[in-house]
């Protein structure tokens, strides 16, 4: 099954969770007519804010990303798990509105966020130049009220030592005609006793204002909290029977970390909640696939509170009363015949521009010009795709002529600058072209010199990276058939949990992105080297 299209057996009319497998967190769901859209966070990866499309909530296809160039957001220098947090997608007066946060840091109680708004008449663009909103917090969202006014909500950050850094949900009016915030901000809601209140979405229904927030942090204690008020500015009463959704206290559940939700109302009057989940490899263990998107059915009786059966995430959910609408399956192999990168690919910290991504000079090949080292944050040359299953692989054929040890090209199982495995072609000191393996575990590198393979004189080399549950393996083909490197590497270091680091109670690093499989070219001497990839095949077991 492709990570871009979640195809579920329509005969059962059920939604199989997660609907977006692999790194697709913080979903914002939207219906426009008969079309449903899901926008998700992308952090340091381009294109920013991936959007998926459905007509039945069961089958989803990728529409690619909205933030495709530096005009909309510049991610040069972006730290690991910084960048685009928690987008919000709404539709009003014939326009799509996308709000997104660019979070620059999270050290010592600071986030340095900046919120932006772009608009378009069509979901595929073109999108307007960004409106610079405030930088008082993150997880910003828009609410279009029945009286025609529009309001910006967001988590209000408090940097002061000894204060709650999650200072509540803030609201301020946005003038759509003037394209700017007006009036003064005010705190709308300070959260429930669970705390860590963020991810607000506001709705008008049944004579009430309904505020949906994420609480408890984005790991095991995560939850969706509901509060309501008769007036826009409150006071807001929290649902007395507990959260709308959580996995906390239920380590037996397949779907953990349930939280950060948004609601959608179907044409036939049904309600559903899109939310994030994680699938640990062991009970409360590492989530190599990252935070994924799931959908739950919501029962909402007139005059009552919305509820999800059991208050926990279900693996299978009754689908809405809509005609089934499957999409064509995505091909396993990308032959790089298109004029631009396919929607399954993402690029790290810089968009796929012609200065380093070339699909034209050599037709049916992806030419990648080498970039910075694994720790470089301005111009890395990594083209990756999300890992969407515990058993999956990426296979490619590369042509590369390294001139020295500073030139590397190959395949990687990647999480962030500090956690990765890399099988690559390079040049040995004696002049031979060789295959080498290198791993990084929180920045501690491990080389495997005994596994070096002589590839001298071989013009085309097959490379394959395999995720097999908690293990990563690498294979190679020098023209005589596939051979396996005799080592099993730890896949669980490519996870949110492993990447997170707390020092003296302060976050030194977070992990929000999930694992990737990718094509990686490094030109550490800046000599203008490139590698040509003939194809790339992604398979899930």
From TrEMBL:
Keywords: Glycosidase, Hydrolase. Coiled coil: none annotated. Pfam families: GH43_C2, Glyco_hydro_43. GO terms for molecular function: hydrolase activity. InterPro entries: ConA-like_dom_sf (IPR013320), GH43_C2 (IPR041542), Glyco_hydro_43 (IPR006710), Glyco_hydro_beta-prop_sf (IPR023296), Glycosyl_Hydrlase_43 (IPR051795). The keyword Hydrolase applies. Residues 333-539 form the Beta-xylosidase C-terminal Concanavalin A-like domain. Belongs to the glycosyl hydrolase 43 family. This is Glycoside hydrolase family 43 protein. It comes from Micromonospora trifolii.
């Amino acid at each position: 099954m492709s990570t871009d299209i979640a195809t579920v057996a329509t005969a059962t009319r059920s939604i199989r969770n997660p609907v977006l497998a692999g790194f697709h967190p913080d979903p914002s769901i939207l219906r426009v007519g008969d079309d449903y859209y899901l926008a998700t966070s992308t952090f340091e990866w381009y294109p920013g804010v991936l959007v998926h499309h459905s007509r039945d909530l069961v089958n989803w296809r990728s529409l690619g990303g909205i933030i495709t160039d530096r005009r909309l957001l510049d991610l040069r220098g972006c730290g690991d798990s910084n960048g685009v947090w928690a987008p919000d997608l709404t539709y009003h007066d014939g326009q799509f509105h996308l709000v997104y946060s660019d979070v620059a840091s999270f050290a010592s109680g600071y986030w340095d966020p900046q919120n932006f708004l772009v608009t378009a008449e069509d979901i595929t663009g073109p999108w307007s130049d960004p409106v610079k909103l405030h930088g008082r917090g993150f997880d910003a969202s828009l609410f279009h009220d029945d009286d025609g006014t529009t309001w910006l909500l967001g988590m209000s950050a408090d940097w002061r030592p000894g204060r709650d850094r999650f200072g509540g949900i803030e609201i301020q009016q946005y003038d759509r005609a003037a394209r700017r915030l007006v009036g003064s901000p005010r705190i709308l809601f300070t959260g429930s006793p669970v705390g860590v209140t963020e991810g607000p979405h506001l709705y008008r229904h049944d004579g009430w204002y309904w505020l949906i927030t994420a609480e408890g942090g984005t790991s095991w204690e995560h939850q969706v909290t509901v509060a309501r008020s008769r007036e826009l500015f409150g006071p807001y009463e929290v649902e007395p029977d507990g959260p709308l959704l959580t996995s906390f206290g239920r380590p037996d559940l397949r779907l953990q970390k349930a939280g950060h939700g948004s609601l959608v109302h179907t044409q036939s009057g049904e309600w559903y909640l899109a939310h994030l989940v994680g699938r640990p490899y062991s009970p409360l263990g590492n989530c190599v696939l990252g935070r994924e998107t799931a959908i739950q059915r919501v029962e909402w009786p007139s005059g009552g509170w919305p509820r999800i059966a059991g208050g926990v995430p279900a693996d299978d959910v009754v689908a809405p009363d809509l005609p089934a609408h499957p999409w064509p399956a995505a091909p396993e192999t990308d032959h790089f015949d298109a004029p631009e990168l396919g929607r399954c690919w993402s690029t790290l910290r810089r968009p796929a521009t012609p200065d380093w991504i070339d699909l034209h000079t050599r037709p049916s090949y992806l030419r990648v010009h080498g970039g910075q080292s694994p720790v470089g944050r301005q111009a890395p040359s990594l083209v990756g795709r999300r890992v969407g299953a515990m058993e999956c692989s990426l296979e490619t054929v590369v042509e590369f002529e390294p001139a020295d040890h500073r030139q590397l090209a190959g395949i990687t199982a990647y999480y962030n600058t500090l956690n990765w495995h890399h099988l690559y072609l390079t040049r040995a000191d004696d002049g031979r072209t060789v295959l080498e393996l290198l791993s990084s575990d929180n920045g501690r590198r491990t080389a495997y010199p005994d596994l070096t393979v002589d590839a001298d004189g071989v013009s085309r080399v097959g490379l394959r990276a395999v995720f097999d549950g908690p293990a990563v393996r690498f294979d190679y083909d020098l023209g005589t058939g596939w051979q396996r490197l005799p080592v099993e590497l730890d896949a669980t270091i490519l996870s949110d949990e492993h990447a997170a680091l707390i020092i003296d109670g302060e976050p030194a690093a977070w992990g929000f992105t999930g694992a990737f499989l990718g094509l990686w070219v490094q030109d550490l001497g800046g000599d203008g080297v490139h590698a040509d990839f003939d194809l790339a095949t992604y398979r899930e077991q």
